[in-house]
Amino acid sequence: MDWERVDWKALERLRAAFLDGTAGAQDYWRTESDLESYDQTFGQRIRWKWDYVFNELKQRGWSPPPAAREVIDWGCGSGIATRSFLEHFGSSSSVTFHLWDRSPLAMQYAAQKAREDFPDINVWLEKPPERMSGTLLISHVLTELPDLQLDDLLGSAANASAIIWVEPGTYDASRKLIAVRERLRSAFQVVSPCTHQAICGMLTLENQRHWCHHFASSPPEVFMDGNWARFAKITGVDLRSLPLSYLVLDKRPAPPRNEVRVIGRPRVYKAHALLLGCDASGVRDYRQTKREQPEEFRRLKKGRIPPYFTTSGGT
């Protein structure tokens, strides 16, 4: 991290555009300094979200479709998603990394940063074809895309071999991503975070107040760095919280899973905890007691939340 190169005024301007909903109206990258400042701050927080998703996929034994010869980073920005993907899954001379953004400046920056870390990467900087194939990476676009552009994106994405989509863990972004899931699930297997292929349980009337979100972790050194503290103060970002919503789809068959996915954070009380869980039967609270499951209860109190659990053992 080269904090001397961070343009703090640019970060304030970018943050304001993200919050007031004007970011989608036009290209907000003015200079390479904008991209560099973003990449070192907001971009790192997005990278930690991608790391969370890729680590979970690897733990579950998932890897990109071997026959897919193209990885498309759609709306690439500074190229964080591509670099995280390369770090976790590596690169091959037979795979083309297609970096696309409405900003030519962003595409050039993303390619430059990818080549710095992965000199042998094969990069293509042109608009993807209408029917996109290969592995599709999409990050933080739902709050910026008008409905017609989202329709076009989903129509193109339906031809992909796999889709990995990461968004902010807000109510609105999550609900939009749930709608994406419902539009695409007939053409794909849902890999994660869902444990089933059925209609999303969040769509019932009794679950309208809920949203599908999870929490990635910030590196410990962030909390000991005065520059990150300055970033948090200027932008109003809570360094302790890194919520995300995400969706992973794959054309390959997926094995059945007899698990419940934990949504958000458990509500921990004196003698019990309530975990909001999702499986094919729907979304509802599961009760975990200190008396019946002392070890699990202690882990929850310490913030060690399992992403999945089975319903055996009295949960």
Task: Name the structural class.
Answer: alpha/beta
Please work out how many helical segments DSSP would assign.
Answer: 9
**What does the main sheet amount to?**
8 strands, mixed
The value of Rg in angstroms is: 20 Å
Shape: globular
Strand content: 15-25%
Care to describe what's here?
With 315 residues, the chain is an alpha/beta fold. It has nine helices and twelve strands. The strands form two sheets. Strands 1, 2, 3, 4, 5, 6, 7 and 8 form an eight-stranded mixed sheet that branches. The protein has a four-stranded antiparallel sheet with strand order 11-10-9-12, with helices on one face. α1 packs across α2 and α3 runs parallel beside α4. The radius of gyration is 20 Å and the shape is globular. The mean pLDDT is 91.
Brief digest:
With 315 residues, this protein is an alpha/beta fold. The chain has helices at residues 8-20, 32-40, 42-59, 80-89, 104-117, 147-157, 171-184, 226-235, 294-301, and strands at residues 70-74, 96-100, 122-124, 135-139, 162-168, 189-192, 214-215, 243-250, 260-268, 272-279, 282-289, 308-309.
Name the features:
315 residues; alpha/beta; 8-stranded mixed β-sheet; 4-stranded antiparallel β-sheet; 34% helix; 21% strand; globular
